[in-house]
Recover the amino acids of this structure.
C-alpha cells in the first residue's frame, strides 16, 4: 500500500515510438566514465502508487509514472520523479504538460556547469561533474537540500548512500566487491523494488572510478523480454546482476552461483543480527531459507578487513553516535582503496609496454609513414 519509488534499466530494441526521440547527444562529453550514457540502454525512474478503491474490480487503484532517459543520474531523476508523480496523481495530465514545458527549457547537460533547472514552481540547483574533477572537488555528499519552498539544491546527480544501500551485505563487503569486479553473475532477492534497485546500483558503484561494463538490472521481472535468456538452464548464467522481488525467482534462479537475499532493514539499529546477513555455502534447497544471507561457494582471495568491519559493521557503536554521512564516506573510501589496489599493478604493466617519453616523436611517425608510402609506391 502507498507509494513506491525505484528505477529500472532496460535494453533499447529500436528507435522511439509515438513521436518519442531518445537519441543520444554529444553534450555529455567530458563527463566521468560512469556518467556516460550507454546507447544500448534506457533508465526508467518509476513512481508507483497503490491504494484501496472499492469502485475498481480488483479493489485497488494501481498506476505508475515512469520517466525514461539515457542519463544515469540516479539521485537527480529520483528527485524529479518524486516531484512530478504526486502532482500528476492530484492534478492529472495538466501537471505532466507543465513539467514537460519546464524540461524543454533545460539547457543541455554539459559537464562542469552549474545548472538552474525549473520544475513545477521550484528551481533546482545542480552541478554536473567532469572527469577532471579531483576526488575532493566532486559533487557533494548528502541528501537533497531544500533552501526554501522554491529552491532545491541537489549536491550530486548520481552518488548513492552506499552504507545505507549495502547495509545488508557489509559483513561480506570484500567478497561482494570481488564478485563484482570479476564479473560474476549475481542475483539480489529483496522484499521491495526500492531495496533491490538501490542495492544493485550500489554494487556496480563499488568499482568507482571504473565503470561496470556488463549488464545489470536494478529491478527485473518475469515480464521482461529477456526473461528466458537470463533464466535458461541450457547454458551458464550470463554475466549480469539482477534485482528481483518475485518469489518465483527463488526456484527459477536457484542454479545461479551467487545469490544475495535481503531482509527488511531496521532503521532503529541497522547493525542488529536480523538485518545483517552472513555468507552461507550454497547447497540444494538453500534458497528456500527466508533468512537474509549471501549464498555462494565462492572462496574470496581477499581477507576481511577487521578494522573496517569493527568501525562500520559492528553493532557495538551506539546508534546515532556516528552520522550516516560519515558511515557513507567510510564505505566509499574502503571500496576506492580496493579498486585502486586492483588498478595499480595493471597500470604498471601497461606502462612497461609503452615506449619511453624521450623516444616518442611526431617526426619519427611521419618518417615511418613516408617510408611506408614509398614501399607501396
Amino acid at each position: 500500500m502507498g507509494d513506491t519509488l525505484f528505477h529500472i534499466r532496460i535494453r533499447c530494441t529500436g528507435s522511439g515510438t509515438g513521436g518519442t526521440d531518445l537519441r543520444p547527444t554529444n553534450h555529455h562529453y567530458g563527463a566521468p566514465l560512469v556518467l556516460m550514457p550507454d546507447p544500448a540502454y534506457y533508465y526508467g525512474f518509476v513512481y508507483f502508487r497503490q491504494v484501496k478503491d472499492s469502485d475498481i474490480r480488483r479493489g485497488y487503484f494501481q498506476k505508475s509514472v515512469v520517466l525514461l532517459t539515457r542519463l544515469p543520474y540516479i539521485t537527480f531523476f529520483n528527485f524529479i520523479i518524486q516531484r512530478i508523480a504526486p502532482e500528476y496523481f492530484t492534478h492529472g495530465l495538466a501537471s505532466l504538460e507543465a513539467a514537460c514545458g519546464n524540461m524543454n527549457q533545460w539547457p543541455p547537460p554539459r559537464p562542469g556547469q552549474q545548472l538552474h533547472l525549473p520544475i513545477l514552481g521550484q528551481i533546482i540547483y545542480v552541478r554536473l561533474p567532469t572527469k577532471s574533477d579531483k576526488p575532493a572537488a566532486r559533487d557533494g555528499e548528502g541528501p537533497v537540500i531544500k533552501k526554501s519552498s522554491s529552491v532545491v539544491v541537489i549536491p550530486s546527480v548520481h552518488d548513492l548512500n552506499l552504507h545505507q544501500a549495502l547495509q545488508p551485505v557489509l559483513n561480506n563487503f570484500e567478497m561482494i566487491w570481488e564478485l563484482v569486479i570479476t564479473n560474476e553473475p549475481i542475483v539480489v532477492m529483496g522484499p521491495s523494488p526500492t531495496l533491490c534497485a538501490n542495492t544493485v546500483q550500489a554494487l556496480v558503484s563499488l568499482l568507482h572510478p571504473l565503470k561496470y561494463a556488463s549488464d545489470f538490472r536494478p529491478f527485473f521481472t518475469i515480464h521482461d523480454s529477456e526473461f528466458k535468456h537470463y533464466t535458461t538452464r541450457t547454458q551458464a548464467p550470463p554475466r549480469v546482476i539482477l534485482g528481483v522481488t518475485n518469489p518465483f525467482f527463488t526456484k527459477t534462479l536457484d542454479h545461479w552461483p551467487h545469490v544475495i537475499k535481503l531482509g527488511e532493514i531496521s532503521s532503529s539499529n541497522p547493525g542488529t543480527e536480523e538485518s545483517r546477513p552472513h555468507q552461507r555455502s550454497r547447497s540444494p534447497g538453500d534458497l528456500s531459507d527466508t533468512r537474509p544471507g549471501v549464498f555462494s561457494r565462492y572462496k574470496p582471495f581477499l581477507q576481511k578487513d577487521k578494522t573496517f568491519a569493527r568501525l562500520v559493521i559492528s553493532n557495538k557503536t551506539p546508534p546515532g553516535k556516528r552520522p550516516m554521512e560519515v558511515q557513507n564516506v567510510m564505505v566509499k573510501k574502503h571500496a576506492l582503496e580496493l579498486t585502486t589496489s586492483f588498478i595499480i599493478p595493471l597500470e604498471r604493466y601497461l606502462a612497461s609496454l609503452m615506449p619511453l617519453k624521450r623516444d616518442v616523436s611526431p617526426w619519427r611517425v611521419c618518417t615511418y609513414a613516408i617510408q611506408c608510402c614509398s614501399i607501396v609506391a
